[in-house]
Amino acid sequence: MLGLGLGANTCWANERPNILFIAMDDLNDWIEPMGGHPQAITPNLNRLADSGVFFNNAHCPAPACNPSRSAIFTGRSPHVSGMYSNRQKMREIMPDAELLPKYFSNQGYWSGGSGKMLHYFIDADSWDEYYPAKETEDPFPPHMPWGERPKSLPRGGPWQYVETDWHAFDVTDDEFGGDSKVADYVSEKLMEEHDKPFFLACGIYRPHEPWFVPKKYFDLFPLEDVQLPPGYKEDDLDDLPQAGKKAGPNRYFAHIREHGQWRQGIQAYLASIAYADAMLGRVLDTLEKSPNRDNTIVVMWSDHGWHLGEKQHWQKYTMWRAVTRVPFIVKVPKGVFGLPQGTTAGSVCSRPVNLLSLFPTLIELCGLPGKTDNDGPSLVPLLRNPNADWPHVSVTHAGQPGTFGLSAEDWRYIHYANGDEEMYDVASDPYEWTNLATKPQHLAKLNELRALAPKEFEPYIPATPRSLTPLAWHPVSNGPAPASKHDGGTFDIFFFNERSEAVSLFKMDADGEPQPFGEIDAGTQKKQTSGPGEIWQIRDLSNRSLGHFVVDDRTARAMIPAK
Q: Could you tell me the residue range of the domain that residue 90 belongs to?
């Protein structure tokens, strides 16, 4: 691997601080500094929090990986950019946006990274170096083979994300691979001397699904001792408006309980957090003994939280605090341009902040030119004094314009696109069990929070069909098209005919009988409403079957091959 540029020109380091930019994926408040689950074991997150400023009221820009990370790396809020969901493509929505690493490269920094930073791509032009190689656009280092799957949780149907599963592998961290390789790459870069300041990104994938980690982390949490989520309340949905009731229950939680896997899932999530924390520890240990120890800003964040049964929900995507509130720690050494005194070790800030502020904060700390398209306020005033006056609220935007969660210091307000509302006094009700939005005695507070909410929203721009995930093509030589087993909602599938002649499209019904859905001319596309488990058969104009597609759990493209 290439070095950062070996040399002894230390004036760069003295003029500009380095940045170590650490992300953990799908990490909620189940860490020791936040107390979200009493059994969490996170000594390295503890020591990082004890060494800098811990923001205990930090929230994500969006409750899904793609829009949240896109907002962090561009500094643009979802309701301004129109980037709301995982099914959009960042470079289609913001083709010319200058990402954090590119900004710092343009200001004389070396920008490198490893692991997941953006949503399953690297954006090669934004980095000087990456591991794996940036040209692959695959941010994931190799890991041990998983073997036959599923491991623990049977797949309930095509509606279920295939990675929702957990397992303990009896291997070492190095044998396991994945995040350990990320930690090793980042550690290697930290140990190098260099002639430029660096922006070094460390993307730790766990606790993202699948919750596959070495067995020693499962062993920390004996199954018989595992406690259910403290925020779980069986009748928690009773006082919610219709939109809230719809956002709560999902098939995942019901499926997990049906198979007796709730406690096992909690064990696996806690184990995955402990593993991620251990990988963080590798990096922090290296930084402490590196030549860059005294001139490196350390930032640690998670893109969003995660439900494990609260509100009868499993996964993310909601506007409740279980998903919007995230771990966020900043450590600034002394002598930095924007904060000469550095951060005070062990500080805690309760002001409502958003990860959208990372871009302008790092710019100010490093004394670099500001960007007019950054939508969040700099956090430097709070790094200087965690109790400083803070006139801002934090807003998290869901996948539909006009659906958002607003976080103040002690209150939260949720607004759905249909006008439904929720409001919570989180100082006395941290799990948001009691919706106060309909209580007359709280109308003044409700109106106060309404007035702080955004009023305009960019429309949702869907991904172009050719950028969607492709469905697997099953040629007729592999067997006939089976019957459809529709099991879930509906969405669009885009069929592309790459043959030199027209083809006919058929949907197999529940009895295995083909139903005609018209023709697709050569070189053209056809949009068709479909759903999980549906089978689409392709025939030539002589009525000869060519093959079929099986619809999975999301909108996709179906490429009919030329031969």
A: 11-390
Contact 382, 373 (CB under 8 A): no
The per-residue b/e assignment along 273-288, b for 16 or more CB within 10 angstroms, e otherwise, is: bbbbbbbbbbbbebbe
pTM over 0.70: yes
pLDDT of amino acid 233: 97
Task: Retrieve residue 340's tokens.
Answer: 């000469």
Number of H helices, E strands in the chain: 16, 26
Question: Which of 79, 119, 307, 397 is flagged as catalytic?
Answer: 119
- The active-site residue out of 37, 59, 60, 65 is 65
Would you report the helix, strand and coil content of the chain in percent, each value rounded to 5? 25, 20, 50
For residue 194, name the pLDDT band (cuts at 50, 70, 90): confident
* 208 belongs to the catalytic site: no
Q: What is the CA radius of gyration of the chain?
A: 24
Our count of domains for the chain comes to 2
> Rounded mean pLDDT of the chain?
96
Task: Please give the pLDDT value at position 224.
Answer: 98
Residue 65 annotated to the active site: yes
Q: Nearest-CA neighbor of 423 among 408, 431, 412?
A: 412
Whether 557 contacts 466, CB under 8 Å: yes
User: Do residue 291 and residue 181 come from a single domain?
Assistant: yes
Q: How far apart are CA 553 and CA 486, in angstroms?
A: 11
